[in-house]
Amino acid sequence: MTAPVRLDAVRKTYGSGAAAVTALAGVSVVFPAGRVTAVMGPSGSGKSTLLHCAAGLDLPTAGTVTLVGREIGGLNETQLTELRRDHVSFVFQSYNLMPALTVWDNTVLPSLLAGREPDRAWATEVLRRVGLGDKAGRRPAELSGGQQQRVAIARALASRSVVTFADEPTGALDSQTALDVLALLREVAAAGQTVIMVTHDPVAASYADTVLFIVDGQLAGRMDAPDADAVAARLAHLGARARQAVS
Ligand SMILES: Nc1ncnc2c1ncn2[C@@H]1O[C@H](COP(=O)(O)OP(=O)(O)OP(=O)(O)O)[C@@H](O)[C@H]1O
């Protein structure tokens, strides 16, 4: 089976001339179906850029991204929008909830936009699992930051998209809620979805099947079946290496 997300020699440069910043310096990686992959690395190492390029939200300067079997460089804007709408979900750092809609309507919106009948039983279950079972009628402004983050997670998972991209999905959550969310991410992956998340938290990363480490826009290693202590140790080592390189 082809992997739902694949990057080949992806480079991303912002700006040009003397001001150019190389955020990704030739990344090749395959994200297999049914797995949670965590992307970790020092601040500014290119994690969010990797996520945005892999998700087709940003186009690479060079190299190719294949998303759900389509090479995105060959798609026009409408095709790319449809590909994302039908197969991809996102949890961003800014939660991008629709302020006028209730928690429930936000949660089922991606399915409606994709022209699918929402799976109401699953949406109800997801909201319950993220601890918002009693908040379905609220609007985002009536929720705390962590609750809004959980709506964004419920919205991403309710549509059972092929791939879910998440940027710090547990950043605003208390540790118990974070663990509940991570367990849910594992569960949807076990059911066949692909989850790719950026995190700074070794405990969150330990819930992934694989951790990819990125330094200076390049892959700097991977760890399968990670445990939190080993991830923290590897990160400390990579951070020290990155600091040495700039001093
Ligand atoms: N739109 C942009 N214009 C110019 N430079 C950018 C832009 N976005 C990112 N960069 C630069 O690209 C590099 C990688 O940024 P990116 O946000 O991908 O890193 P990150 O690993 O996600 O960082 P953090 O952990 O701090 O969120 C950084 O040097 C950043 O300053």
TrEMBL record:
Pfam families: ABC_tran. One of its GO terms (molecular function) is ATP hydrolysis activity. One of its GO terms (cellular component) is plasma membrane. PROSITE patterns: ABC_TRANSPORTER_1 (PS00211), ABC_TRANSPORTER_2 (PS50893). Residues 5-241 form the ABC transporter domain. Keywords: ATP-binding, Nucleotide-binding, Transport. InterPro entries: AAA+_ATPase, ABC_transporter-like_ATP-bd, ABC_transporter-like_CS, ABC_transpr_LolD-like, MacB-like_ATP-bd, P-loop_NTPase. This is Putative ABC transport system ATP-binding protein. It comes from Labedaea rhizosphaerae. The lineage of its organism: Bacteria, Bacillati, Actinomycetota, Actinomycetes, Pseudonocardiales.
